[in-house]
Each structure stands twice: as C-alpha cells, then as structure tokens.
Amino acid sequence: MDVRVRSCCCALHTFVRVVCIFLTLGYLFLALLATAWHLMATNGGRFNEVSPGHTVTFVLALTFCLLGVSVNLLALLAVRKGQRTLIIPWLVFQLLVIIGKSRVFSHVCKQCIWTK
C-alpha cells in the first residue's frame, strides 16, 4: 500500500510561508497593543505626564515590531525568489528573540525564588 502525501501542503516553503505570516500578524498585533498601552498611559493625550522610561519602552516595542515584520517579509521574499541568503536575517532575529525570552524567563524565575 503506497501512502502519498500532497507535496504542496507538506513542502518546506509552505511551512516557512505560514510561519512568517503568523509571526508578521503577531508582530503587528504587538505593535497595536504597544500603541494602545502608550495612548492609555498618556491619560487622554496629555504627554507632559509621561515618564521618559515609558516613552523609551514604547519606542523599543515599536522598533522590535518593525524589525520583526521586516525580517519576516524578507524571509517571505527569500522563499519566493529562491535566494537562501535572504533568510539569514530572519534566523539571526529569531535566535535573538529566543535568547531574549530565555533571559527574561530566568530573570523572572530568579526574582520569584529570591522573594520567598
């Protein structure tokens, strides 16, 4: 008995496209959340009450989202054009995201352990 799998749904380029589209939507949603958070924190548009740390956090969040969308679009272009070198920025960015998440997780765990 031969089992045949359709190559269009299990191909690597299809997986990369789906992952990049989901990640792009996630970064756009994160940018929307950061913007809403910033607008709510400014108390209806009164920017003189916003702390500098809050503004820096907002700018860093938007920069992170813009970078994420850019590298995902670059990865989609790499799949479409068949150029492997265009996917390297996506790989580096994802590596940095994973390292950043593990650092934040270890910091939160350390804070939880030391506070008890």
How would you explain this protein's 3D organization?
The protein has one domain. It has four helices and no strands. It has helices at 7-10, 12-41, 52-81, 88-115. Helix 2 runs antiparallel to helix 3 (52-81) and helix 3 (52-81) runs antiparallel to helix 4. The termini are far apart. 8% of the residues are buried.
Features:
single chain, mainly alpha, 4 helices, elongated
SSE topology sketch:
Layout: H1 7-10, H2 12-41, H3 52-81, H4 88-115
Helix pairs in contact: 2-3, 3-4
Helix-strand string: HHHH
By secondary-structure content and strand pairing, the structural class works out as mainly alpha
Please outline the major beta sheet.
Answer: none
Radius of gyration: 20 Å
Low-confidence stretches: none
Number of helices: 4
State the end-to-end distance. 60 Å
Q: What is the general shape?
A: elongated
**Beta-sheet strand percentage?**
under 5%
Mean pLDDT: 83
Could you estimate the helical fraction of the residues in percent?
Answer: over 70%
Number of strands: 0
Task: Write a concise synopsis of the structure shown.
The protein is mainly alpha-helical and 116 residues long. It is built from 4 helices and no strands.
